[in-house]
Amino acid sequence: MPLSDFQKRKVEHLFNVEDINKNGVLQEDDYILIAKKQLAKSGISDESEQGQKYIQVYKDEWLRLSTEAKAEEGMVTLDKYTNYFENIIEKNDFSFFKNVVHTYIASGDTDGDGKLSLEEYAALLSAVGISEDQAKANFDQLDLNKDGYLDESEFLHHLQQFLTSDDPASVSNHFLGHQSLSFN
């Protein structure tokens, strides 16, 4: 089943978040920049063994995306990115995202408790250009079990809902911090 116009707008938003250098295509450099910014926010050197392993995870994620989205000349266009997510949603197979979510949370988890506090979540999102104020504005709604943290299951839930829901009022539409972003 093709994506609705609403879902396409959300996928385009995700594409724009990942297009760190804002050149209109996704490339490996975007993923490396995301990793390096997240490491810097976490106080981890990108030259350290831990930093290199983290960057490798993002390079692997790029390799998977570029292969599955059929990148041309090392670039994934918005159309190819949208088709990629359309296939994931159609198959209802979000298994790959479990590893991505685990890695993403681990990169921002500065105290090592396996989940993100409000401060950790806001700092992590600032690495992809989302203001801490925007991230903080939605944190309480995203915290489904109201324990003051976002864990992997909550984050994965919001990612899946972001991609699959056609409900403009869903808090998952703003899990990347954009409470002012209108998908209506």
Structure notes:
With 184 residues, this protein is mainly alpha-helical. It is 60% helix and 0% strand. Helix 2 (28-42) runs antiparallel to helix 3 and helix 5 crosses helix 6. The longest helix is centred in the N-terminal third of the chain and has 20 residues, at 49-68. The two termini are 21 Å apart. The mean pLDDT is 88.
The overall strand count is 0
Radius of gyration: 16 Å
Name the structural class: mainly alpha
| Main beta-sheet annotation | none
- Helix percent reads 55-70%
Report the order of strands and helices: HHHHHHHH
Number of distinct helices = 8
**What number is the mean pLDDT?**
88
Percent range for β-strand residues: under 5%
Q: End-to-end span in angstroms?
A: 21 Å
Q: Low-confidence segments, ≥5 residues, pLDDT <50?
A: none
Global geometry:
globular
What brief labels describe this structure?
184 residues; 60% helix; mainly alpha; single chain; 8 helices; globular
SSE inventory with pairings:
Layout: H1 5-18, H2 28-42, H3 49-68, H4 78-91, H5 95-108, H6 118-126, H7 132-142, H8 152-164
Summarize, please.
The protein is mainly α. The chain is built from eight helices and no strands.
